[in-house]
Fold this sequence. Notes:
Elements: H1 2-25, H2 31-34, E1 37-49, E2 55-61, E3 66-69, E4 73-76, E5 82-86, E6 88-93, E7 96-103, E8 106-115, E9 119-132, E10 136-149
Antiparallel strand pairs: 1-2, 1-3, 1-10, 3-4, 4-5, 6-7, 7-8, 8-9, 9-10
Amino acid sequence: MKKLILLSVTLALLFGIACKKEKQKKVDKPVSEMLRGTWFTTLEKYEYFNASNVKEYEESKTPGVQYIINNQVTRKNAQGVKDLVTDYSVSTVNGKYYISFNQNGISETFQIVSVDDKIMVWTQEKKNQMYNSSGDKMAAKQQLTINFHCPCRD
């Protein structure tokens, strides 16, 4: 009986130590570090809403734009031509993460919806945006969602 109790206690201790070590191995990096790398867009989806928040129109752009995020954001279009090199900042507001940078002299801010080793999603909402669906139209709101993949981390 003593051997059975001793065996049970030993197994419980080994299991507890193994679980504890695994938890200690997992180190969450700050979002600012997770952003660093070479990312390719896999989807750029633009959704346009009227004043009643009803979606009126949706369009997607061809993926393949490259974002290199290190000390700066460098963006290359699908043909590999640099069209943006700028400083950026990462901030937190109400527990949500944001990345901000200047594009053509205009400050752009995107919410970082998610980021891990391989996948990242940004969103941005703008008011009063034009779109073309059988002619130019004005939307009360535009919701842009950009999905990224980092193939270097596969």
